[in-house]
Amino acid sequence: MTSPPDEPPSSASVGSELSSTAPAGAGAVGERRTAPEPSSAGKAEGPPPPTSAGEFLDEILQRKSELFRGSREVLRDSYVPSRLPHREEEIRKVAEILAPSLRGELPSNLLIYGKIGTGKTAVVAQVRQDIQRRAQKSNEVQFITVNCGNIDTAYSLLQTIGNGFARAEADRIPTGWSLDRVQGAMRRLMDAWGGTTLLVLDEIDRLVARSGDNVLYTLSQLNTELETSRLGIVGISNDLKFTNQLDARVRSRLNEEKIVFEPYDAAELQDILRDRAKEAFKDDVVDPGVVERCAAYAALENGDARRALALLRLAAEMAERDHAKRITPDHVVKAKNRLEQDIILDCCRTLPPHCKVLLYAILQLFERRRSGVLTGEVYESYRRLAERLGLQPLHARSISNYVSELETLGLVRATIVSRGRGGRTREILVDVPISETMPALEEDPLLAPLGRPKNRGQMLLMNFDNPNRSGPF
Ligand SMILES: Nc1ncnc2c1ncn2[C@@H]1O[C@H](COP(=O)(O)OP(=O)(O)OP(=O)(O)O)[C@@H](O)[C@H]1O
Ligand SMILES: [Mg+2]
Known about the structure:
Number of helices: 18
Radius of gyration: 28 Å
Structural class: alpha/beta
CATH class of the largest domain: Alpha Beta
Bound molecules: adenosine-5'-triphosphate, magnesium ion
Helix content: 40-55%
């Protein structure tokens, strides 16, 4: 058996390298540095202020954080913490299922389900680290982790797996072969190595949605074709129903073992955040109530630990921007508003064109009225805007479907109201900040002509960008 090539350093190892650079003993209360006061009476003290981009960059890089102990990567998604509170049972189960690989036996295939931010990827990454550490001597187990969100086709998945075992450039599977040829080459590369491969397909539901289940059929029956090596599959999904789309044989092969990760509650999120805050921040810079508030907000968002950590990180960044010495519950409120706004605006930016025009029409009506608007009025207003923009308006039925889509996205709320004599219509209410959302929609060149009058500088810039535009300048 030959040894497989080294994999690129995992995010886990990068994270722990960074965390170990935290200065020992940093954060004692007495050591807290205060921001330099502006020098009195214009007397120059210390080095002159930076003037060039290079000097600014040097200054930023040298600036010591008042709040962070070391690297802020500790609060990022890519960081794998050494402890995962409230996932001990899941870690034990995953380890128990995959452990046979360390004895040279084939483990059962495993499917892991759970809502977003419930620690699925983190748990598998931790078990992977521990198995790899133990397998180092024997070199018999190789993990290949693929985020299926980044994979478009069955071809690229098989190519990625095969190339994980290529020892020389000449062994690598190129693009442009037939799928059968790629499959054969992948098998040969795996057999040339000869150990047990644990293939982690993260976000496996996205693979199925994009390219069907043929490739999973191929992979799940590979052990009947492999001669010296073996393949175990770990699928991770946040869609509990995705196996309904699978062929019955594929479903039963992948589903040999199944673990469901339940969402975290507020108390569990607090423990997770406290652990992380201790690692990330200096002592005594997190006010009481900060962790509790981040946990409470995230618990309402389906118990998503990612959201809880993002809130804490953003709250710290808000505090830094305020030059505050401590992170307060108010910073968390600001962070929550900012995070929600960013999510809403990103969502609006990705709507299809007619749906953007429709949302714009709803916002305009709502802004004037400050009360619910009826479907008929919305359609009329949409139609006028579409015509003004040179678009062929869609039929009322399509627009009604788009209203439902906006409702599903949480951007508007529609309630049925009776209109006398048995007539019923929908009243639409807006659930987004109008003053932020309209400019976000106007960023689309298609909707730009609907924009409110800009100041003279902005108009000049717009005319400069678009010389064909007729306007006051
Ligand atoms: N028990 C825990 N202890 C510490 N950190 C955790 C825990 N659970 C999750 N996290 C952290 O929360 C973030 C989200 O976790 P993870 O990526 O594992 O979620 P997921 O279930 O894979 O979500 P998705 O379905 O969106 O991929 C990561 O930064 C992870 O380190
Ligand atoms: Mg994940």
